[in-house]
Amino acid sequence: xxxxxxxxxxxxxxxxxxxxxxxxxxxxxxxxxxxxKRICQLLVPxxxxxxxxxxxxxxxxxxxxxxxxxxxxxxxAQSSLSEGKHQEALPAAQFCxxxxxxxxxxxxxxxxxxxxxxxxxxxxxxxxTLVSExxxxxxxxxxxxxxxxxxxxxxxxxxxxxxHMATGNLEAALLHFANDVYFASEEYGLDSTVxxxxxxxxxxxxxxxxxxxxxxxxxSEVARTWHCHLTKLLKTHVQYVHNPDMMLEPSYDxxxxxxxxxxxxxxxxxxxxxxxxxSTQIALLAHCLAMLWFLGKDSLKALGFCSIALQASQLIPNxxxxxxxxxxxxLVQTEAHPGSD
Length: 341
Description:
The protein is an all-alpha fold and 341 residues long. Among the domains are: 1-125; 229-336, no CATH class. 80% of the residues lie in helices and 0% in strands. It has 15 helices and no strands. It has helices at residues 2-20, 25-47, 51-54, 56-82, 86-104, 112-124, 128-143, 150-167, 170-188, 193-208, 212-242, 254-273, 279-295, 299-313, 322-336. α4 (56-82) runs parallel beside α12. The longest helix has 31 residues, at 212-242. The radius of gyration is 23 Å and the shape is globular. This is Zinc finger MYND domain-containing protein 12. InterPro entries: TPR-like_helical_dom_sf, Zinc_finger_MYND_domain.
């Protein structure tokens, strides 16, 4: 146990060093303030010993507050990562790991989410040696926990696949992304947007290998899944507009929108810049992006993608999407200029 504990503390120290490397005092302070302002009130009772905190009930309350800290730090880190703000994600991810160790110990499955957050942040910053170390710790924790759920397996394989892709080991990346898809489909289903994230990553690898027919097939599956999902969200939104008393399904937050936008744009660029220029796929993807940004209340982006989608759909006689795109265009214009009729 002592060797495992020392290994975990070594990783924490390494993360701290990377956090400080190349950052002046002002930027380090900004990084810390970004997470500290979210958790300050929870830190006070944890760091201020009292007679109550030393009693059994007090210790339980402190553990609950630490658990709340873990969730806040995880949420802040994930939001920053979704927006591509890797440096800003580091303090929250690091604090998430520290609190997880305090609550669960130095070698448990509960540390894996924090390891994965830190790995993703450092991947974005190019610290691949540290990423490999963090994922090794996560993999070891998963191997020791046969009861570990599908979600953790899928997240771990996705992170390992991204690491191998970054280092150029494309075959290893494909293997991990295939495992990612398997575990995600077991947990969320084959048609889930979570599962198709693994298909998207596999398609990126196939595209790098020049295996374009396979890449196109996977991109098509991802586009179809997102189109179905966004169409349902749009339908719910329209029903809510006409009946405000109904329950509205939660839409995406800004960070999630940026993440989905990047994925859909990647596929749209692939189609627009490819030799075959599939108008059906261009219309489908542009329609997805128009719905995404309409739901995100960005009329300008929604109008732009509606225009691209409509132009592409009109190149195909009797295309099924032409009418839905025209309806969306009318919705966007109506909500952008209410009362203009």
